[in-house]
Amino acid sequence: MSHRLVGRNRPQQVIEALHVASESLPAAQRQARFARMAASPRRFFDATNHLYWQDVWPEWRLALFGGWPETQTWLHGDARLHSFAAVGHAGQPIRYGLTGVDRALIGDYQLDLWRLAASLVLNIREHGELSSKALDRALWALAQGYRERLDALREGQSAKGSELHNTKGPLKAFLGKVADKQHPGRALDKWTELTEQQGRRFVPQPNKLANLPVDVASRLKRLIENDYPQTLPKPVKEGDEGHFRVKDTARRLNTLGVEHYYALLEGGARGEHDDVIIEVVEQTPPPAFHLLSRADQQGWRKLFPNEALRHAAAFHALAPHTDPYLGWLTLNDRVFAVRRVAGFEKRLPTHKLKSAKTYRRLAHQWGGLLAEHHVQAAAALHREPARFVEAVCRRIDGREEAFCESVAAFATRYADCVEQDYRLFTEHFMGGAS
Questions:
Q1: Which of 37, 160, 269, 299 is surrounded by the fewest CB atoms within 10 Å?
Q2: How, if at all, do strands 246-252 and 95-98 pair?
Q3: HSE value, Cβ hemisphere, 13 Å, CA-based, for 369
Q4: Cα gap 7→15, rounded to integer Å
């Protein structure tokens, strides 16, 4: 009788990973999650971050252009095309960049770059508009954008950022449309309504927002008003306590298996238009945490006694804007990050991109933006701000073409693997439907 090694059994590995990731979900949420994943290989990839980390941690290829302590930075943890968005906050310029740090962790820069590159491949294949040659050129543009931005920063250039006034090409056109059509108060318009009897309140929306049970709403209100303000970056000034009075709460519905709430705060005292929406999001360790050695896990816990503190550290390191509402709380022995809901988040409609040139230009910009995120984040880890840039550039210098080729090769082959896993998923979980 032959013995089948689980470690060499890809179908079993994928099926077990999907079971573990979805077993805590109620049946209806699990069904909704699987339906989204079944839409395309790209959607499957977006929803299986845990599989990606199992595959690339550890990965010997990291040593070719990184793999040093100095080439580590804060990683976004789920860098994909659809993780980029134009974000608007009241009193701040519109910025385009990576959003969300719930899965952020410290690791080698290539782990973000590879995931972003694989996302680019799957997105282009999903819409079938480009030849394989054009796809390869877009991947090279992504890697070149990352490398060239690092070179520029090493030479002393300041970060470009991603505001309307300092972008160009298709990204500038997109941000211009966003600026014309969006406004920072859109979140209030989207999630709440103003009534004469009750003032401003959340509006339940099918599959998006629901009322909370009275007991949960009461506990959440008490924690936000009393405990959460103690965790803010700046202490609440005397007399400003009313700013954090909770007017309403709601459950944000999702298929991720984490608790997610919205709370409507009083905000300023000028009326209903200056209310503030905060989100309270359960924090669990990012997928790579479970792949660390016991010693590294212990070191992690010394740095971050709870996952909300990791979230806060990652936000300060990666986010291009500040959030005076960034804090945390504990509810039912679960730890939650608290942050302000953006006035709006708009993603570039990649499904509308048709030309190879547009994809190349955007890929170059996405690579450059990721590099700037990494450089900014590395400053929180290394005493010498230029240490990360210098270390990565030294690993690439003289081998620029090989670096671009390595990124393109990984992304193409890994996208092939994702498509294979996707077919397995649809056959095993969806009865062959795709």
A1: 269
A2: unpaired
A3: 28
A4: 13
Q: Are the CB atoms for 330 and 111 separated by under 8 Å?
A: no
pLDDT at 1 (0 to 100): 47
Token reading at 255: 């298929």
Strand partners, 334: 331
Phi-psi region of 279 (alpha: psi -120 to 50; beta: other; left: phi over 0): beta
Q: Report strand pairing: 246-252 vs 260-265.
A: antiparallel
pLDDT tens digit string along 72-105? 999 999 999 999 999 998 888 899 999 999 999 9
- Three-class DSSP labels, 112-130: HHHHHHHHHHHHHHHHCCC
Peptide bond before residue 11 is cis, with ω within 30 degrees of 0? no
The mean pLDDT value of the chain amounts to: 92
Order of all β-strands in the sheet with 84-88: 95-98, 84-88, 344-346
Collect all residues with Cβ–Cβ distance below 8 Å to 48 and sequence separation of at least 6.
Answer: 17, 18, 21, 37, 421
Exposed, middle or buried, 119 (CB in 10 Å: 0-12/13-18/19+)? buried
Mean local confidence (pLDDT), 37-54: 97
Domain locations in the chain?
A: 6-182+350-429, 186-342
CA 267 to chain centre: 27
> What are the angstrom distances between the C-alpha of 77 and each of 260, 287, 373?
19, 9, 12
Residue 434 has pLDDT above 60, yes or no: no
| Numbers of helices and strands, H then E, in the chain | 15, 13
What is the spatial distance between Cα 223 and Cα 331, in angstroms, rounded to a whole number? 8
Gap between the Cα atoms of 117 and 412, Å rounded: 8
User: Interhelix angle for 49-56 vs 110-127, to 10°?
Assistant: 130
DSSP type of residue 40: -
**H/E element holding 277?**
strand 276-282
Cβ-proximal residues to 126 (8 Å cutoff; 6+ apart), any chain: 40, 41, 42, 351
Q: Cα 56–255–32 angle (5° rounding)?
A: 110
